Backbone:
């Protein structure tokens, strides 16, 4: 009998499960990564949901946040990115679509909460070797962008994009994060435990592998099949391919293992109604 593979923290399903089951870990990562960006914000009433979907309409591309955190005055998205990506455009799309979902007809723009997008990247997103890159909107009074008047005008678009790099250069200049965050990035890259926080994360990773093994294995098989069929970006890119034969087979396979409808929907990019429609003939 083949031994089941061990899924690491950098694997999407494990990352989401760990942060859902241990909200304190999700909050700690947010605090370490965002730093000053969350100063003064409501950290006492945070709700955490994994695989949050924002779907504007049938013709537009939807998005699925890995770990979505929200409070009274901000929302944050924690993403594990293990493949090269056009990060600036992806993060722009994430924020714009989520903002549109936040406002109802008649609402003023003042109701928009602060937005924080955090990508934990296993490939250096900008190839400069830094552990952390921070992107915020600035205001300039000239075309050459030399007269920065952001601070003097108190200009604030209320968003921050943070890109963490697990392959940063290990020197004083490029390790521009605190030791605890540096240890976490190294853990994502190597699974080496260096402090009490990474030890806590590692324990949860092992627990998820133990208790959610069948679920993780089913996801692994699905991703392997998708790669074999040449699906270019897979589930994480949110590409809608319709209810294909492969998805139907995956739904049935997961159902036979008594997986919850919500989990089946989550990893087949289908709604719970679509999953139930596929399973109805089985029930009959």
Residues:
């Amino acid at each position: 009998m083949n031994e089941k593979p061990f899924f690491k923290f950098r694997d999407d399903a494990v990352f989401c499960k760990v942060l859902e089951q241990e909200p304190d870990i999700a909050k700690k990562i947010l605090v370490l990564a965002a730093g000053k960006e969350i100063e003064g914000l409501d950290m006492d009433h945070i709700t955490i949901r994994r695989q949050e979907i924002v779907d504007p309409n049938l013709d537009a591309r939807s998005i699925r946040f890995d770990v979505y955190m929200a409070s009274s005055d901000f929302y944050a998205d924690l993403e594990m990115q293990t493949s090269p990506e056009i990060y600036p455009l992806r993060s722009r799309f994430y924020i714009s679509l989520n903002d549109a979902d936040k406002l109802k007809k008649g609402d003023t723009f003042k109701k928009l909460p602060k937005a924080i997008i955090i990508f934990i990247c296993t490939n250096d997103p900008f190839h400069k070797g830094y552990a952390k890159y921070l992107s915020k909107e600035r205001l300039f009074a000239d075309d050459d962008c030399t007269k920065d008047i952001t601070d003097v005008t108190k200009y604030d678009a209320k968003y921050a994009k943070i890109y963490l790099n697990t392959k940063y250069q290990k020197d004083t200049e490029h390790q521009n994060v605190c030791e605890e965050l540096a240890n976490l990035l190294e853990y994502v890259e190597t699974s080496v435990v260096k402090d009490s926080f990474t030890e806590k994360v590692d324990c949860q990773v092992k627990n998820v592998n133990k208790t959610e093994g069948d679920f993780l294995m089913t996801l692994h098989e699905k991703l392997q099949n998708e790669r074999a069929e040449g699906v270019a970006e897979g589930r994480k890119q949110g590409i809608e391919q319709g209810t294909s034969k492969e998805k139907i087979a995956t739904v049935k396979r997961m159902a036979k293992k008594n997986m919850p409808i919500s989990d089946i929907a989550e990893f087949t990019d289908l709604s719970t109604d679509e999953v139930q429609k596929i399973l109805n003939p089985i029930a009959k």
Residues 230-243 have pLDDT under 50 and may be disordered. Residues 79 and 119 are 5 Å apart (CA to CA). The longest strand covers residues 47-54.
